């Protein structure tokens, strides 16, 4: 009978929202040697059972690498058997699907819990669904309580003795269309983690743009003391990581280019890398867009880099804008389209 409950649960899973889903296979991964200090900081927070901050809000502007970091942490916890579950909302997801996915967050995380052999929760989760097959039509706080917290509490004594804290990762909350739904998700999971703290070692990693509506959800006095915030713009400058990324990628591009003799002895110049790092303003999406533009097989890479570096005063203001103002729309698409449009004018 438990199997029937698990079968019903799987029908509600949003597979594309899993950190390791095939739908996410094309997305960027963390470049080796980058974001090391930040990743170590998050791991230390996760491992520290005495840290009162059960919730970590990782916030940053478009293209700064929030999802890459969330994916790296999720993979680390998954390999250690400590990923309770993750849910990734992407800009590439159709708008109507994003709204529908709100109803699938709790079932998707419960499914990952059930699949984790270290947790051994299948019979508890399947039993909850078998007992109440209509649970997927209930509100989000009830689903979180019944599908996630209750099964964990049934094994809380045993788990607390032998396991370090486990993690729930929610990425791209700002991509949920309705602001009310964003608040509902933040409040439901935050309150559940806080209420369960004395029974179950669970922590919550939330990743989003620094939107006021999400911040307002943390103003509840019952959860405020348990929240730690990391601002990627202010707390962890990505400039040196972007420099490493650009140098490594350009070096690999030169190594594999069919006609390496076309390049000068030193290319790109250090000054060119410096300029690109400054224009990136901490956003890996900008650096990736430049690389995609320069490495296009149909064009001369030296000319392309010169075009990217030779932006006019007006264009330069656009490229430097992210730290001064938020740019709407998918940032990496905006950058890439801008470079290719610029190319047509030369």
From TrEMBL:
GTP-binding is among the record's keywords: no
Pfam families: NPHP3_N
Domain Nephrocystin 3-like N-terminal residues, every copy: 41-209
InterPro entries, alphabetized: NPHP3-like_N, P-loop_NTPase
Keywords for this protein: Repeat
Protein name: Nephrocystin 3-like N-terminal domain-containing protein
Gene source species: Pholiota conissans
Lineage: Eukaryota, Fungi, Dikarya, Basidiomycota, Agaricomycotina
């Amino acid at each position: 009978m438990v199997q029937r409950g698990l079968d019903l649960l799987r029908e509600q899973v949003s597979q594309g929202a899993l950190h390791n889903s095939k739908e996410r296979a094309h997305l960027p991964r963390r470049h080796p040697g980058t974001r090391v200090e930040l990743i170590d900081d998050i791991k230390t927070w996760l491992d520290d059972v005495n840290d009162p901050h059960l919730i970590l809000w990782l916030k940053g502007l478009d293209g700064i690498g929030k999802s890459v970091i969330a994916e790296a942490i999720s993979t680390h916890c998954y390999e250690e058997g400590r990923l309770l579950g993750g849910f990734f909302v992407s800009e590439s997801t159709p708008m109507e699907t994003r709204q529908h996915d709100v109803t699938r967050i709790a079932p998707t995380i419960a499914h990952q819990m059930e699949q984790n052999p270290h947790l051994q929760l299948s019979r508890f989760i399947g039993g909850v669904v078998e007992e109440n097959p209509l649970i997927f039509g209930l509100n989000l706080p009830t689903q979180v309580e019944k599908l996630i917290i209750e099964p964990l509490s049934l094994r809380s004594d045993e788990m607390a003795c032998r396991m370090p804290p486990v993690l729930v990762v929610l990425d791209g909350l700002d991509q949920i269309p309705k602001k009310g739904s964003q608040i509902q998700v933040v409040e439901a999971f935050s309150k559940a983690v806080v209420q369960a703290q004395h029974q179950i070692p669970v922590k919550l990693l939330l990743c989003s743009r620094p939107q006021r509506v999400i911040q307002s959800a943390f103003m509840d006095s019952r959860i405020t003391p348990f929240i730690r915030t990391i601002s990627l713009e202010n707390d962890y400058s990505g400039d040196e990581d972007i420099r490493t990324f650009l140098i490594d990628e350009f070096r690999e591009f030169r190594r594999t280019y069919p006609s390496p003799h076309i390049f000068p002895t030193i290319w790109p110049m250090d000054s060119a890398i410096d300029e690109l790092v400054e224009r990136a303003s901490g956003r890996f999406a900008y650096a990736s867009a430049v690389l995609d533009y320069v490495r296009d097989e149909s064009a001369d890479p030296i000319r392309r880099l010169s075009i990217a570096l030779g932006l006019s005063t007006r264009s330069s203001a656009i490229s430097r804008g992210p730290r001064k103002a938020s740019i709407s729309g998918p940032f990496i698409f905006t950058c890439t389209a801008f470079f290719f449009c610029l190319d047509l004018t030369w």
